[in-house]
Structures are given as structure tokens and as C-alpha cells.
Design goal:
With 144 residues, the protein is mainly alpha-helical. Helix content is 51%, strand content 12%. It has a three-stranded mixed beta sheet. Helix 1 crosses helix 2 and helix 5 crosses helix 6. The protein starts with 8 loop residues before the first helix and ends in a 15-residue tail after the last strand. The model has no long low-confidence stretch (mean pLDDT 88).
Length: 144
Amino acid sequence: TSPSHMPDDRMIIRFLKARDYNTEKAREMLCQSLAWRKQHRIEKLLLNYETNATVRDFYPGGWCGFDREHRPLYVVRLGAMDIKGLVRSIGEDQLMKHVIHIMEDGLQRTEKATLTTGGPISTWTCVVDCEGLSMRHLWRPAVK
């Protein structure tokens, strides 16, 4: 990891909280995360990612403001999603890149929310609307 991509205090605190402030477990988890980010070239993905037209038209989700505690709010209508069609159209890798981009965008939005509210915002909220969800959504490649 280059110095510009070193974890900041907010990231370290997230990992400490995730491991109930066990520093050794938090360090191990953070190292694994950084290695995964390097392997999958997440920084490059963030700089170069463009949502393709199929995802834009058929992925039923988006950022919808903030929740009551000023956290960024993302809503995905899982029951309205044609997972099988999306995977067949754009492939698993492209769909995974889109989901990773949403996650990373959420983290960037928490940083902006912290600056806007003046208080620490370290998480974002994802509402999963399951209306219309059925067994057809449990297509094997989509639930891996």
C-alpha cells in the first residue's frame, strides 16, 4: 500500500469496532482487507469505473439522501431485480465491480457526511426492499 492509501484513523477505528477492540484481530482483518484491495485493484476501480448502460437501466438501486442519523442511505429493490438477466447480460465480474463501487462510494459519502454534519459518520445504511422476492431470485450463480 502506498502512503496515500494508508488507512486513516476512521478506517482503523472501523476495524477495531468490528473485532470488539481486539487489536490483534483488528490488525489481521485490516491486513487482509488491504491485501484484498491491492489484489482486486480497488483504487483503480474507483478512478476508472463507469456504470454501464445495462446496469444503469436494470439495477434497481440508488442513493436516496440520508437516514435520521445523517448516514448516507442506499435503497436496493432486490425483489424487482432480474439477477439472472443482469448476470447473463454483463457477467458476474461486472456486477461484482458495480457492487464494490457502491460500497466504496458509500464510504466516500460517509466522509462527506462527517464534514457536513461536524460529527463522526462512519457507516452508511442500506435498505433492501424485498417486495416481489421469490424463489426465482435464488438462481445459483447469483447467490454464491
